[in-house]
Design brief:
two-stranded antiparallel ribbon; Integron integrase; 334 residues; mainly alpha; DNA polymerase, domain 1; 2 domains; 5 strands; single chain; hpI Integrase, Chain A; DNA integration
Amino acid sequence: MEPLTDTVSAVARESRPPRLLDQIRHRARLLHYSLRTEDTYVDWVRRFILFHGKRHPREMGAAEVAAFLTHLAVDRQVAASTQNQAKAALLFLYGQVLGLDLPWLADVVAAKVPRRLPVVLTQREARDLLLQMNGTMWLAAALLYGTGMRLLECLRLRVKDVEFERRELIVRQGKGNKDRVTVLPENLLLPLQQQVDQAQAWHRKDLDAGLGEVHLPDALAVKYRSAGRSWGWQYVFPSPVRSVDPRTGKERRHHLHEHSVQRAVAAAARRAGIVKPCSPHVLRHSFATHLLQAGYDIRTVQELLGHADVATTMIYTHVLNKGGRGVRSPLDAL
């Protein structure tokens, strides 16, 4: 017979409210935030609590939030975007998790993000970079440069969203949770078809092992219970190994990890002798700039990139003129 003390302690544990960090995770999942955002918010809240000597956030307010953000900016010297990310996590904590309607929340000033010109490769540099890559990493990088997709948009591409006959790709749930259509380069039709064939072979292997289910967005897994194992929902760039989903505990084959492509692009840039800081996102910048240089309308480029405001796309016009804004230096007249 189970001791009475053990029964009482078990009931007490069950009646105990969930830990604050667990509440953040539960709320983030309820609002369909990505796992990346969930982990980021939990990490910033943990840092905030530790910074103030493990005091509960209910005991703190505007002064403590401002002190933490000032610490990040002055002592840690983080970028303005990082400081704003920490602020967003704390606003989520107080507004969405603790449910505190505090007037000072609106008074927490966001850091001013400086306007930076994007790093853009020349067409020769883009060619040299791709020549230093091969296999799946080459295909992923070539798609980034050839379509203007963001890195995670590329890696999360599903088989059903590749239109070989129409020569287009459908980007689902891009930034701002928006869908859009972008171009599929003719030169990538055959390599992409080969990649899809490889992904299908792995999917069949998973099905034979009693697995083969892929993560589905939102509540589609509940609405269409067999969709997770269907071929069309599989990733175009599946990971070569299966892993356990941290949210459900199910063993699945996720997409390639973005760090793999980031490392491959950085290594290829070094081998190609490119001295500019080069990341996968630079290929997106280069796609937009080279289209504008080729004479395409800025509205068309805006739609391909998925920008909500054409002003965001306008930043790429900085390289369209010769030299510094098309000005001829007086030194050249000597």
